[in-house]
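re: ur question from yesterday

yeah so i grabbed the chain u mentioned. its 350 aa long if i counted rite. heres the sequnce exactly as i have it in my notes:
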Amino acid sequence: MNELTGLSNGGILSIVGNTPLVRLTQIFPDLHFNLHAKLEMLNPGGSIKDRTAMSLLREAWEQGSIDSNSTIIESSSGNLGIGIAQICAFMGLRFICVVDSRTTQTNLKVMQAYGAEIDLIRDCDAPGGDLLNARIARVKYLCSTISGSFWPNQYANPANARAHLVTMREIYESLNGEVDYLFAATSTCGTLRGCSEFVTAQGGDTKIIAVDAVGSVIFGGPKGRRLIPGHGASRVPELYRPGLEYQHINVTDLDCVTGCYRLLRREAIFAGGSSGGVVSAIAAMRDGIPAGANCVAILCDRGERYMDTVYSPKWVAGTFGDVEGLYDRPARAERDPQTAGHTIAAYGGI
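ran it thru and got these structure tokens back, copy pasting raw so excuse formatting
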């Protein structure tokens, strides 16, 4: 049996974190500030939730809350489920993931490939259509009936936030502490809280922009239907504290789609739905960002997990109608003149 306390000594889980930070040069024409992307999709399980899963289970192991006979039970829309499934596959632990009808088939198949058991909550099982609370109720029920079970509880466990002290430290180290704005999708508030607490501890003045979904209640908005998982919540997570964010901005499902295609067409970054929301939030705020500022966008996961939604022309048309210009490639003149003429040879060939 491997020990979670020794993962840094080898194995696939030892490479969680230390994701690249890359400069985006073509995302917007005439960009007057520096924009960098933290590529969390390059974690081994494909998302920022690998960090959360590691932190949740490592601390549980160290505290004696789980052992080699434990059953892990968690609620997830996909990414945390995949992160936990990967760890449980490595550790030989049983994992039951409670998902809902919005979870993509790709995410379900990935979790099952790792050996996770899927417990599906359907719309008819959720009073008032509240899938998140229905998932949590199901987790509590399963924990009460399965001996040796453990709920990591990503919504309330401070270990979630502690994972992102490291995320923010990596960003600071990459930019020598000169980070004026950080844009982060917000759901459990683990990333928001961890990054905010790191900045406070450092005495920094980074302005953290929480990117939330229209229809999410985290910052007091009215509850509404949301189609794209990865950001937003139908209840305020226990991890949230007022003032963690400098500002919040709500984005629509269509904003997420258009932002994803902007990333793909202009930067060749194939990212998930919440990353598109982050890009659209930056677009909405960019005129107010000072010239020369250093801005960082956390891009949470991979685009492959959204092939049936964001990257499906049929789904997009059926959901939003004809979105003009969505699939167009930008004209060369719109690109940064310093990068527009670059060829593969300029980067050492292939």
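noticed a couple things. Residues 22 and 37 are 5 Å apart (CA to CA). also The radius of gyration is 20 Å.
anyway ttyl
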